[in-house]
Structure formats: structure tokens, C-alpha cells
Design a protein that fits this description.
Radius of gyration: 22 Å
Shape: globular
Number of helices: 18
Structural class: alpha/beta
Strand content: 5-15%
Number of strands: 9
Largest sheet: 5 strands, mixed
Distance between the termini: 54 Å
Organism: Anoxybacterium hadale
Order of helices and strands: HHHHEHHEHEHEHHEEHEEHEHHHHHH
Strand order of the largest sheet: 6-5-9-7-8
Protein name: NADH-quinone oxidoreductase subunit F
Length: about 425
């Protein structure tokens, strides 16, 4: 457990998350106080230096995103905190929301001040409704103590935060879909352009950031970028909260420095596989992420090293699967998830998922046709290239990576042997 760190999570367990006075007693809101003495340009430069990639899954550079949002003209802008943490095996944002809600409030105030926004919205996952009273209280206490509302700390800056709950749709984790949901419409993605940074919520310029991204901003503003950069690697500086689950002895949300190997994460932090079973595969970044075999478990957990293996950090989820599970059964469980969660707006996603599910079912039953795998790969590639949003583009990541790493599970080895004769 000593391989974990506490930069983003330094406040966990250190105060009562239901009391702003408890938060203030440990130095709470010092990041906001410091940020409000700085210019927007200075904060953006600090954010660029921290080199934080967005932690919702897309890994877009946060400094660049804030600079773009600040440069969009407009007197009335919006900051949205995407707390719709819907990726299976991803619960690291929940740990921030439940253990350190005031740091999230700080991150939103700083983001709003930096880009010139007057209002912020927290879009909370429906399954996290039990956290709504805690977050509502954090907003109310911040308002009554002068950290939200008009003329915050007599600086002339005014900012309000509103709390909105989703209805449980996975696709609402996508920025434009989330905005449609807040506006009271069906949760379906928008055509881009216009991009939401120019025309987002209520047609206003909008910045959307993940919970962890905003919490990191408050942390490095408070302590300085150098402390954050003292962790990690040159290509992936800093730390990351991961969600570790599956066939693992010690599941949980852990903050780690970038650069630990997957083996260190699974066996040293997670305690390894229970009941003497062997690691078969792992999936990174939730259901939309790719899977990797045990043979690459010594890969460092960095953006660049994972990319060499065709993997991504994504949402930070690490799902561990042992030798009791058939790969094809695992693929079927992911496919069933996307059948349920596709919004049905575009044909590649709606029909592609349905047709691939039929093929996977035949593999599960052992009744596959000779051209089934080739057909599934063709449909999957069409979805990746033609789907309307990220859901359809990534829904087949599991299938394609399973075919790559476990060809024998799809009979490819047998086919190759038969072709020799």
C-alpha cells in the first residue's frame, strides 16, 4: 500500500465532509483564495505546466482546454462538472464526491474564474443520488460563507453552482449528451460543430471537466505545480486515482503515481488474485476500454507505455479477470451492456451492436458460422469509424482487443491449422 500517494486524495479522512468549518480547519479554500489573487492567464499557464490530461477518459489536455474556453468571447459562460461516472468498474470520482466535496467546489470556482463563467453545474450520476444531500450541503455552506454567490471574497467575481441529477444513461457521460439532459431533452449527442466550448448549455460557451480533473486543479493551485510534478514520469507527470476491481483481493479507489507497472498495481496494491487463481486478462478504462493479457502485466501505467500496447488510461478503471472466466463470456457481458446503453440515434451503433451481439451469442453457444468472425470485425470497424459519438466508436474495443490477444478463443488457431492441409 506504500506505493500509493496522497496529492488529490490528501483530504480524505482528514475532515468532516458535511461541515465547511471542518474543511476550513485543515486549510480548506486556500486554493480559491490564492487563485483569486492571480490572473486568468497565470492560472492557465500553471495548468499547462501541470500537463494534466482530462480524467473523464478522453485525456484532452486541461491547460489547452481552459485556454480555449477563456478565449471564447462572451459575458455569460458555463462550467459543467461531469459527475456522471457511468463506466463499469469506475468509481474514483465517487470517492472524491463522498470524501472531499469541498475540494470539488474549489476546483469549479477556480475553473469558472479562469474562463470567465458565472454559473457552474454539477451533473451527478443517478446512481449517486445518495450523495446528493452531501453535495447540496457543500454548495449551500460555501454560499453562506462567501465562497459562492456575488462578489466572492470581495474580489468582484461572482459564481453560482447548481446541482443536477441524471437519469442513469451511460451515454450522458458524453459532453453534448449531458448538456441535452440538463436542458430537459432526451440524452442524445449533438452534431459538432458547433463545439460546446462555443455553444453549449443553453447556447452559452461551456467548459466541461471531470470531477477528478477539477480536484487536481485545486490541489496544484494550493500546493504549487512542482509538488504535483514531483510524481510520475516525464511523459505522464503527476498522479492518478484508479478504480481497481474484479478478481482482486483488495478492490478500491487508490491514488498512484504514473509509472507503476500493472503488476505492482494488481499484486502489491490490490493484493493479487484470490484463491490461488491466475490472472487471465485486465480491462483498462471501463467497458469502452481494451483488454490486455497477463503477458503484458509488467507494462508501466503511463499514457505513452499503455499506448504502445494498444491500451488507454481512459476513466482509470482497472478490471482484473482471472482464469475462471472464458474470454468469449467476458466479451458477451460487455456486448450486452452496450446493447442496453446505445441511445439508438445512429445506425452504425444501433444496428452494429445488435448484429455483433447475435454473432457473439453463436460463439458462446459454439454454433458460429465460418464467416462470423470476419463479419463481426467488419461491423466493429464500421462502428469505430462511422458512429455518431464515443459510445459507438469504442463499444467494440473489447471485442477487437480480445480477437488480437486471444485468437484461439475465436477458433483462429484452428482455422490457421486447417488451412495448412
Amino acid at each position: 500500500m506504500s506505493k500509493t500517494v496522497a496529492i488529490i486524495t490528501e483530504n480524505f479522512g482528514q475532515y468532516d465532509p458535511g461541515s465547511i468549518h471542518s474543511y476550513l480547519s485543515i486549510g480548506g479554500f486556500s486554493a480559491v483564495k490564492k487563485a483569486l489573487t492571480m490572473s486568468s492567464a497565470e492560472i492557465i499557464e500553471m495548468t499547462k505546466k501541470a500537463a494534466v490530461k482530462g480524467r473523464g477518459g478522453a485525456a484532452y489536455d486541461t491547460g489547452r482546454k481552459w485556454a480555449q474556453a477563456a478565449s471564447v468571447p462572451g459575458e455569460d459562460k458555463v462550467v459543467i462538472c461531469n459527475a456522471d461516472e457511468g463506466e463499469p468498474c469506475t468509481f474514483k470520482d465517487r470517492s472524491i464526491l463522498s470524501k472531499d466535496p469541498f475540494r470539488l467546489i474549489e476546483g469549479m470556482i477556480i475553473a469558472g474564474y479562469t474562463v470567465g463563467a458565472k454559473n457552474g453545474y454539477i451533473y451527478l450520476r443517478e446512481e449517486y443520488r445518495h450523495l446528493r444531500p452531501l453535495i447540496r450541503n457543500a454548495i449551500d455552506e460555501s454560499l453562506s460563507n462567501g465562497f459562492l454567490g456575488d462578489n466572492i471574497l470581495n474580489t468582484g467575481f461572482s459564481f453560482q453552482i447548481h446541482l443536477y441529477s441524471g437519469a442513469g444513461a451511460y451515454v450522458c457521460g458524453e459532453g453534448s449528451t449531458l448538456i441535452e439532459s440538463i436542458e430537459g431533452k432526451s440524452g442524445r449527442p449533438r452534431i459538432k460543430p458547433p463545439f460546446i466550448k462555443e455553444c453549449g448549455l443553453f447556447q452559452l460557451p461551456t467548459l466541461v471537466n471531470n470531477v477528478e480533473t477539477l480536484a487536481i486543479a485545486a490541489a496544484f493551485i494550493q500546493h504549487g505545480v512542482e509538488e504535483y510534478l514531483s510524481h510520475g514520469t516525464s511523459g505522464s507527470p503527476g498522479t492518478k486515482i484508479i478504480s481497481l476491481a474484479g478478481n482482486i483481493k483488495n478492490p478500491g479507489a487508490y491514488e498512484i503515481p504514473f509509472g507503476l507497472t500493472l503488476r505492482e498495481i494488481i499484486y502489491d496494491i490490490g493484493g493479487g488474485i484470490p484463491d490461488g487463481h491466475e490472472l487471465k486478462l485486465f480491462q483498462l478504462g471501463g467497458a469502452s476500454g481494451k483488454i490486455g493479457p497477463a503477458s503484458i502485466v509488467d507494462t508501466p501505467y503511463t499514457y505513452e507505455d499503455l499506448a504502445k500496447e494498444g491500451l488507454v488510461v481512459g476513466s482509470g478503471g482497472i478490471l482484473v479477470v482471472d482464469d475462471r472466466t472464458r474470454v468469449i463470456d467476458f466479451v458477451k457481458s460487455i456486448q450486452d451492456f452496450f446493447i442496453h446503453e446505445s441511445c439508438g440515434k445512429c445506425t452504425p451503433c444501433r444496428e452494429g451492436n445488435r448484429q455483433i451481439a447475435k454473432i457473439i451469442d453463436r460463439f458462446v453457444e459454439g454454433s458460429q458460422r465460418p464467416d462470423d468472425l470476419q463479419t463481426a470485425e467488419r461491423f466493429a470497424n464500421i462502428m469505430s469509424n462511422c458512429a455518431f459519438c464515443g459510445l459507438g466508436e469504442t463499444a467494440q474495443s473489447t471485442l477487437l482487443s480480445a480477437i488480437k490477444h486471444f485468437p484461439q478463443e475465436f477458433g483462429l488457431t484452428e482455422v490457421a491449422e486447417n488451412e495448412k492441409h
